[in-house]
Amino acid sequence: MAVPAGPRAVYVALFRVFTGALITLLHFTSAAPGRVGSSAQSLLQPYDLLYYSGVRSYFGSEWANAAEQLEKAVITKESLSTVRRLCHGECAAAGTDAFHQLDAAGGSLWDLWAVHWVQRKAECLRFCIGRSVTPAAQLPVSTDIEYEFNTRNAYNFLQVVYYKLEKLQKAASAAHTYFVANPSHLEMRNNIEKYRRMEGVTEEAFQDRELENERHWVLYDSAVQSEASSDWVQASEKWKACVNKTLWQTDECRVQCEVTPRRLPEDRGVESNDALSLSLLSCRQSCVTQVATRPGRLSSQEDFLPTQLEHLHIAQFKAGDLSGAVQTLRSLLLFYPSDKDSLDNLQLYYETLGGDAESPGTQPAQEIVAYISRALEEKRLLYFGVENLDFSFTDPDLWTPEDVVPESLRNDWRAEKEKINDKLKEGEQMEEVDESGFFSGGPVLQTGVTITMDDQLMNGTNRVVLDGVMTEKECDSILQLAKAAASAGDGYRGRRSPHTPHETFEGLTVLRAVQLAQDGMVNQSDARLLHKLGERVRELLHSYFRSPPDLFTSFTHLVCRSAIAGDQEGRLDLSHPVHVDNCLLEPETNQCWREPPAFIHRDLSAILYLNDDFDGGELFFTNRDAKTITARVKPSCGRLVGFSSGPVNPHGVTAVTSGRRCALALWFTKEKMYRDMEREEAELMWAADGKSVAKKDGEEPEGGAPPARNARSQAPTERSRGRGRVTGGKDEL
To answer: In CA terms, which of 67, 486, 569, 598 is 20 to 30 Å from 286?
Structure first.
């Protein structure tokens, strides 16, 4: 393509192309309504107007209209994105004739043909979008509306609206969808537990309505699970699907950057137009971060796509797909061409292939080649803007080569990379530091309880195994309670475990046990014993770990997991993968990120075992690499394991291969606001001499009117830098 000579002239010309695209498109989408015709009612309306209408109806207690308008807002926003995506594809070839003229043009004529090409594309988009969307709906929405939809606050309102309309299945679905993106929202979590206990609410209700935009994360987690089971063929297929879906999701985000209208700057000068063009490029680059951020997470997983490629080539090699492994590894080397481990692996693959390493099937994937080429072109333009136009740009990638960065910016760029590397090294060095405020070795005050293993025997910090915490009779009573009530307990209903397809899972909370006792379904004394055991454990660990004065029970869960008969042969997975209770463990970097969806308020963890008549199911502790096992604990009646909930104590559970393993899992917190309110509700029910003071199936979810506080008021104050996959954060051990 013929362009004006000189690097700066090239970049300025390219800026004009991008500026022309934005100015022309924004001009058309911001134009006066004009002739819409009689079919205006069938066109998409402004979703921000629908949302505001729904919120007004909500506060006016007009529940039916609120539900209608809020649902229309959600559907219209998604439909608008679909229209824009389809029109972008339809108009991709628009102005091709003008584009081809650029090859022969020079000087100012090149600029004229460039503007003509851009104008043709913009006209096509305007016409295409106008067929389905009203002029008002094509205008930019406010940042407040963007925030409301990014935090899924529409579902916050909808869960209350549907509850008021007695549509409990829809209320539960809205509550679950909101909670996925706001996992630290305690009120919504309590609401979900209440919905689980309500008659007529089935497990199908607890599905994420926004799941279609998160398919790459579903595939990611599924691929990790296949790896844990050493099913390399399945892992290879799932990692490949995950890579493809991640690329598609990134392209979808980039399309929305290009076709979503933006507000024009007040000053229409050249510099402000350049800034608008750069903001488009920056938006496209930021798609890397958006796609790599899980719902409910504050930060993205760094090197998201390269990490998938690394997993994929290893899975392909172990599955016997050598050509595929070479192709994937060569694709990975486009990101990190001098990585020693990758180069060594490539040499190994070449030797295994026996010299057939240059066939077309082993070349880097064209999708990755295009991805890298496009990203580098945009980065060069953006760094040019940083250097010459005082533009601010944060590079989302760690793999960006140094020669893309202008010489004048490289010192600052290197310093930033060194900070990241220092932080990673610091995480490795912090392995043995426990900042929980607990100090093991205090007295054990209960008669008959003995210390079986301490920190030294367990090769760790703030760990203990106590025996004699329960009698055989007490174990039998709680096992009987679990047998009678756990399948109808807190919503799990004996479904397959969330961690493995080879086990089923049952759970029971103290409050649910009390409610079942009042309905005559279980023994009242057994329900009281379940509550009493929690207090016994709290007092023992409060003394042994020399806890600060206030230590509150945060959650208590009677959990049974059973091996599925005939489904255990060759099993290599875990009953519960290695995790940390109050942070997100990233074994690759030895980091543990204390942010949602981890239960960051948990300070002390405990497991009280009830039986040993099963195979497997041992608790084990590891280093932060999630591989190096430092201690094992075999369950038995009355055995208590206590440990601080932070990153010094990663732990998991080996597979239960036969029988049924039951234990009481407990967590404790130093913060009163995170105490277990359900335990207090159970205590109130007992205090009322058996007359329940709690609402049952008709109880109103918290935040009934107005709704549960929105994500602004629930956002944690600590905004740590999040990385890595989620390997923990479940309500059981």
So the answer is: 598
Q: Answer yes or no: are the C-beta atoms of 641 and 465 closer than 8 Å.
A: yes
Give bridge partners of residue 70 from the DSSP assignment.
none
Instruction: Give the contacts of 347 (CB within 8 A, at least 6 positions apart).
Output: none
Q: How confident is the model at residue 677 (pLDDT cuts 50, 70, 90)?
A: confident
The amino acid that residue 385 corresponds to is: G
For 133, the 3-state DSSP assignment is strand
Residues 6+ apart with CB under 8 A from 678: 193, 509, 510, 511
How would DSSP label each residue in 597-632?
TS-TT--EEEEEE----EEE--EEEE-TTS-SEEEE
Active-site amino acid positions: 661
Residue 597 preceded by cis peptide, ω within 30: yes
Alpha-carbon gap, residue 3 to 82, rounded angstroms: 35
- Bridge partners of 586, per DSSP, are 591
pLDDT at 683: 86
Q: Which of 50-54, 507-511, 708-712, 724-728 has the lowest mean pLDDT?
A: 724-728
CB-based contact 452:467 (threshold 8 Å): yes
Alpha carbon of residue 64 to chain centroid: 32
Determine the Cα–Cα distance for residues 294 and 216; give it in Å rounded to an integer: 10
pLDDT at 710 over 60: no
Amino acid at 100: H
Peptide bond before 647: cis, by omega within 30 degrees of 0?
no
One-letter amino acid at 248 equals W
**Among 149, 145, 208, CA closest to 175:** 208
The DSSP H or E segment spanning 584 is strand 584-586
Strand partners, 666: 556, 606
Residue tagged 């502790």 (tokens): 621
Half-sphere exposure (Cβ direction) of 388: Cα atoms closer than 13 Å? 17
Whether 285 and 250 have beta carbons less than 8 Å apart is answered as: no
Confidence band for 708, pLDDT divided at 50, 70 and 90: very low
How confident is the model at residue 333, as a pLDDT? 95
Q: How far is CA 277 from the centre of its chain?
A: 31
Contact 239, 308 (CB under 8 A): yes
User: What is the tally of helices (H) and strands (E) in the chain?
Assistant: 22, 14
Q: List, in sequence order, every residue forming a beta bridge with 642; answer none if it has no partner.
A: 464, 606
Give the span between the Cα atoms of 77 and 67, in whole angstroms.
Answer: 16
Q: Which residue has the tokens 């679905």?
A: 173
Q: How far apart are CA 438 and CA 651, in angstroms?
A: 18
Rounded to whole angstroms, how far apart are CA atoms 549 and 551?
A: 7
pTM for this structure? Answer: 0.62
Nearest-angstrom CA–CA distance, 225 and 410: 40
Beta bridge partners of 585: 592
Burial of 692 (0-12, 13-18, 19+ CB in 10 A): middle
Name the residue type at position 220: Y
How far apart, in whole angstroms, are the C-alpha atoms of residue 512 and residue 42?
A: 49
Q: Give the tens place of pLDDT for each residue, 156-176.
A: 999 999 999 999 999 999 999
